[in-house]
Amino acid sequence: IIKGTQVYDAQKGAFVDVGVLDVQQIFGRAGRPQYDTNGGEGIIITTHAKLQFYLSMLVTQAPIESKLVSALCDHLCAEVSLGTVSSLKEAVVWLSYTYLYVRMCRNPLAYGIPFEQSTHDPRLLAWRTELVQAMARRLDEARMVRYHAPSGSIDPTELGRTASHFYLSVETIEAFSGLWHERASEADILYTLCSASEFSQMKVREEEMEEMEELLQACPLTVKASLAEKEGKASVLTQAYISGTALKSAALVSDCSFIAQSASRIARGLFAIALSKSWISYAQKVLKLSKMLERRTWWSRCPLRQIGGVPAEIYDKLEAKRYTSAARMEALKEMGVREIGQLVSHQRLAAQLKAEASALPALSIDVSAQPITRTVLRVVLTLTAAFEWRDRLHGGAESWWIWVEDSDTEHIYHKELWTLTKQQALEPQELSFTTPLFEPLPPAYYIRAFSDRWLGVETVAPLPLANLSLPSARPAHTDLLALRPLPKSALADARFEALFRFSHFNPVQSQIFHTVMHTDDNVLVGAPTGSGKTVAAELAVLRLLREYPGCKAVYIAPLKALVRERMADWRAKFVQGLGLKMLELTGDVTPDARALATAHILATTPEKWDGVSRHWQQRNYVQKVTLVIIDEI
Q: Which DSSP string corresponds to 373-409?
């Protein structure tokens, strides 16, 4: 039985008729096999004016038309972000797979396609191309994709990926683009959020104005628009939702529920966009707003309200004494039960309050840093969970945003979402990453750790840079000297000279010849492809044979294909030419111990050599390794 066919649609801000699909689905419940043996009856109660509408809806079979055109921009952006579509041609082909294309071919007039065009072009190739071009240009103007008209290429952008991930429509991004700026306040961010296209159909009614005025007076944030505008109404209802205010009007309750469904998702999208732009202040504020929407409490309130295990008046007493920040929560953890009881004038709940403070997530951070170059700094964080893990509150994992910021320039140099599991919380965890350095060095960077879920949970650790010892500012490369090419007779061994088909070494080989052939120094050779770096490795092998007979050389390459290629090349030189023994040591080939003991050269991959060298005390052939050649660094 369907009693009444008018339902309130918060997205449109008005009462609408129940759709044909909903009616058919509800009526499909009647007459189910094995339940209703005598057949089923469906009853619809509606007004006389709608009688003919629903009668024809149930009796007449009308085709269902596609609505994809209204959201084609968003779907195209998602396909480009996924990599499914990378050009105009691919987008046109992709459109032919949709139900929209089927209905356009069957009923072109319903989609504004002239009858003549559908006759001359039955597959509607020109129409699809024109439609995709229009959508691509719009997305390009919104910077959600990069569309190059001459070549037809469509490339994704970070903004487009974020919009697709958080289901932000192109209309929403267009509205945001003129409103967001780095120095925005919380009120500005809330106004930007309420300008989303999701709230564009929200209507302001005369009978709601009195209650809206009362709600406006209780708003902690300034409302940047009048109550007669949708942005003003959305802003007031959003703040009422965070405050948990009870609404009187049924329409306002429905509107507030609709806002609650979308506001948190949009705020998370805004946060991701702010992070991609490296806006410190904006990202902090919008993350705070998104957590307020999820937790339904204000950042100025006591963080323990998110646990809510004691009466609200106890939290009111803590707020009156300014226990609203992470630092004050740490002080509360250090207090004894008696002190907490005296603080809130309630000894019976003091132990429970202390337990809540101990369960509030917190991290302690130890920072160590080491410069790799004058422009790259390696940072190692030791993160320790400073709270009691409770499954009811924390689940299986807690996520934290870790970022490195420069307070002078207000720029984020590193950001990542770090997850702490219940098992990891039992012992300190290490997190390492690299961040850029710029001279002159600022006094310090700051490491910030924000909880992704909890309000008022933040840890800041300074990373001093003033006393950082940077490597010397030597040139990144060695100048190529104007040397006379060295003849291969410099090897002073006829067997060695026979290995090379050329008569003289090239300039790079000539310059490094003495170091490689006559010293035991470590050598790093970085040169363009085709400059003869492999010959440098071969010279090192020849020195090993001459100066350290009985020792072994190890050749390490990142790929098995490179190992096999080097095996084939050196087998002709060293095995056939000098009578050496070479052995491949990869996951595909496992030689026996005797072959390993007698081999002069081992060719392997980093993973295999890492596993082998860990037990070098038990492996004599590893102890005999004197030369290590690492290729394709």
A: SSSEEEEEEEEEE-S---HHHHTTEEEEEEEEEETTT
